[in-house]
Amino acid sequence: MSIAKNLILAASLFGTALLSHAGVIDTFTPATKVTVTKTKFFEFEYTVPTKNFDYLTQSLEDVKLTIFLTDENKGDETLKFIIGGTEFAQVYRDDRNNAVNNGKDNITPVDIDLTTALGQLNTYGKLSVFLSTDSAGDYNFTGSSLSATVVDKPQRERAVPEPATLGLMGLGLAALAVRRRRQS
To answer: Taxonomically, which superkingdom (predicted)?
Structure first.
């Protein structure tokens, strides 16, 4: 193959590789122990790094939030998470009694596929997470991770005027030409 063909092939393969890639966007670990009770909630926020993500040309898909919990007190907790702001709020509930595995070192991962809250990420580049419980039991929040697939947005096609619009414009120009001719 010629050098030009090799360059074109390499460029097309490189371009295809950039179309989408999956991975962990960010992780969050609290600085101190966080216990969530009926009267004590916890809130944190993710910010999508702009270093590897361009909001104008890319979007996030298949976003998963994983929250890691423990239960030292062997309580009867239920889980309620509100993910995303008011405009894009997505509620996750687990009303099972004792939703978190008991034991200090027994970590329970809770995987949440983001659907509604994905709008907040793609629009503002941020994701707020609010952890609470509606029961008398409590649980400890030990950390979380946010993973997604970054996909290039398709380029918008140029709008083509409809035939009726072109016809009206042509009639207007013809009327102007006739009027000018009559005035001369």
So the answer is: Bacteria
